[in-house]
């Protein structure tokens, strides 16, 4: 009997040891999994941070290139090119279209930069007191343009682009066309919008300018291809 009791005691002790080892192993595996997930999260966060830093660097480079272009446009009347693309863009949509037109037509390009830049609050058309709402409700509003205006004397054709605000061109476009001499030049207005057509915005700018041979122009989608732009240009009247 004593031998049997000792035998059962040894078996029970062995089972307890195996159970403890299994629990310890499971706990260790759980800890490793948690550590691995944490490491993966940190790695992902670092990757996102790196991506944002790259985007920021790219934006700064693009801004620097745009600044250089703005500086050099002052002397473009002697560049040998006969076409100029002028644009105002508050959110970047019109800018993208303008750059494609300049590439297709091998034109110089000039960005109209407001002296007081528009914030997201300024662009809130739901707010009756937002800056853009006030400007568009005042036909005589003329926002100031930052920097020097381009010398357009050497160009024969000028594309003028802008977003549609409240069914018309932003008032800063009126500032521009009233400040430069478009006499003897072919002027092509183009716009971008969420769905509105160019409407009478081009005609309104033509009246304010009082100069140039203005074509009807048109609305262009923000993601338009260069091929579509070429087709649009070929069909201008």
Outline the structure in words.
The chain is an alpha/beta fold and 237 residues long. It contains six helices and six strands. The relative contact order is 0.11.
Sheet of most strands:
6 strands, parallel
The run of helices and strands is: HEHEHEHEHEEH
Low-confidence stretches: 1-72
User: What shape does the CA trace take?
Assistant: globular
In terms of structural class, how would the helical and strand content be classed?
A: alpha/beta
Rg for CA atoms: 33 Å
Estimate the helix proportion, in percent. 40-55%
Mean pLDDT: 78
SS strand fraction: 5-15%
User: Number of helical runs?
Assistant: 6
Give the beta-strand count.
6
Distance linking N and C termini: 115 Å
Key words describing this protein structure:
about 240 residues, 6-stranded parallel β-sheet, about 50% helix
Task: Give a quick summary of the entry.
The chain has 237 residues and is an alpha/beta fold. Helices cover 49% and strands 11% of the residues.
Ordered list of secondary-structure elements with their pairings:
Layout (H helix, E strand, L loop, with lengths): L1 H71 L10 E5 L5 H13 L2 E4 L19 H6 L20 E7 L7 H7 L8 E7 L8 H9 L3 E2 L3 E2 L6 H9 L3
Parallel strand pairs: 1-2, 1-3, 3-4, 4-5, 4-6
């Amino acid at each position: 009997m004593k031998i049997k009791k000792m035998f059962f005691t040894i078996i029970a002790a062995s089972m307890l040891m195996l159970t403890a080892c299994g629990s310890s192993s499971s706990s260790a595996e759980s800890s490793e999994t948690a550590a691995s997930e944490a490491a993966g999260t940190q790695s992902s966060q670092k990757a996102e941070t790196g991506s944002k830093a790259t985007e920021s660097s790219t934006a700064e480079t693009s801004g620097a290139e745009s600044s250089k272009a703005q500086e050099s446009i002052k002397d473009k009347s002697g560049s040998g090119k006969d076409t100029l693309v002028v644009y105002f863009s508050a959110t970047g949509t019109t800018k993208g279209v303008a750059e494609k037109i300049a590439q297709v037509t091998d034109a110089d390009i000039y960005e109209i930069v407001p002296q007081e830049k528009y914030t997201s609050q300024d662009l809130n058309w739901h707010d009756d007191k937002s800056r853009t709402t006030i400007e568009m409700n005042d036909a005589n509003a003329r926002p100031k343009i930052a920097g020097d205006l381009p010398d357009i004397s050497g160009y024969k054709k000028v594309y003028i682009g802008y977003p549609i605000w409240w069914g018309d061109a932003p008032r800063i476009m009126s500032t521009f066309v009233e400040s430069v001499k478009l006499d003897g030049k072919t002027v092509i207005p183009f716009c971008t919008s969420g769905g509105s057509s160019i409407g009478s915005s081009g005609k309104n700018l033509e009246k304010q300018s009082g100069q140039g041979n203005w074509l009807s122009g048109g609305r262009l989608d923000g993601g338009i291809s260069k091929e579509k732009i070429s087709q649009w240009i070929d069909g201008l009247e």
